[in-house]
Design a protein that fits this description.
With 185 residues, this protein is an alpha/beta fold. It is built from 7 helices and 7 strands, in the order αβαβαβαβαβααββ. α1 runs parallel beside α2 and α5 crosses α7.
């Protein structure tokens, strides 16, 4: 999970994004990130949707954060996507680490994301030992495959910090305005 210091990129960039890009915040998978994102949602007065499969974790977050615009969803991200109808400026994905599920989440939210908005993906540079350990338990940690696909897409700027976010990698995907030239006016 990590400490807040290990999440410095998320802590420092989200406020800048919200200052210039209108929209809500969406999070798939609760953790340290939830408290960082909630702080930004409060200070910018935007809705904050968070989705997790653990009801107890969501209840604890609701109690500890105490924000009227916090909208928790108990269930899988795919069910959440079926009900979601808003326009995010920031999306943070750290739920299921299976590339097939992550790809669905990413495709859905990149389509909804405001121009200039950012989608963050966690666990995009996992330790080899983590991948092998999960594989032995029949689980998959292949979020990095989605990162590699996004890096090939010209519609987005993609940058990965390999050493942050609990040292598992944090990838930032910026949605470009394809109607704008490459320079600022």
């Amino acid at each position: 999970m990590g400490t807040v210091e290990e999440w410095a990129i998320l802590k420092n960039l989200v406020g800048v994004i919200l200052k210039y890009v209108p929209g809500c915040i969406v999070e798939i998978g609760c953790g340290v990130s939830t408290y960082i994102l909630a702080e930004h949602a409060k200070s910018h007065g935007v809705k904050f949707y968070t989705c997790d499969t653990q009801w107890g974790k969501l209840e604890k977050i609701k109690k500890n954060i105490g924000y009227d615009n916090l909208i928790p969803f108990h269930g899988r991200s795919i069910s959440f996507i079926e009900t979601f109808n808003d326009t995010p400026s920031v999306v943070f994905i750290d739920g299921d680490h299976n590339a097939k599920v992550v790809r669905k989440e990413v495709n859905f939210f990149l389509d909804k994301l405001n121009i200039g908005g950012v989608l963050f993906l966690h666990d995009t540079c996992p330790w080899k030992e983590t991948v092998e350990s999960k594989q032995k338990k029949g689980r998959t940690v292949d979020t990095y495959l989605v990162r590699k696909e996004l890096e090939q897409n010209k519609d987005f700027d993609v940058f990965t910090w390999r050493y942050t976010a609990a040292f598992c990698g944090l990838t930032m995907v910026l949605k470009k305005d394809m109607s704008e030239p490459e320079y600022r006016r």
